[in-house]
Hints:
Radius of gyration: 20 Å
Low-confidence stretches: none
Amino acid sequence: MEEEYASGDKGLDRILALSDAIFAFSLTLLALNLVVPQLTSGQLNTELQNKLIEMIPSFIVFFWSFFIVSFYWIHHHRLFRYIRRYDGLLIWCNLILLMFITLVPFTTNLNMHYGNLQIAVILSAIFYAIPGLASSGLWHHASKNHLLIDKKLSDHTIRFLRNRNYVAPFVFLISIPFSYIHPYLTIIIWLTSFPLRMILSHRFSI
């Protein structure tokens, strides 16, 4: 490990500053996929109501994507509470995570337009899973033999965070075969990632 990667609050602050900026940017871009409908008929109230009803699936996808990005940000924040040092591998794992966080707005747009197509939900599941896998790799590397984390952190807490890392990507990846039955079934399975994490948090609370 290069000495300049070994420690330093300024280095960690830069990693977190870049991460927070990208998470915030991705959350902002999600709203750009929602376009205010243009009204053309004389019955404006009725037309607006109909167009807003037509946009309900788009709003559902927006809220879902917002929760996904928020979910990964919260977990990223929790992991870095315990990270005290950094090295090149941690930086690259973090950059891979951020790269796919920036793709969430694209994935949102894809689902808004083609959520009924198998290839769209398969690609979305993969894109949603990769940040979780990168986060898992980041934590596995940082926590191995307490390499980059607080030396006093208990093994129980390390295992809890490690196991929790895998829940979301596991759900996204196992949902892919269900797309062969129907793409919407895959999307329904994605929603189980939240109760699964709640169950895990209760079962292995720290």
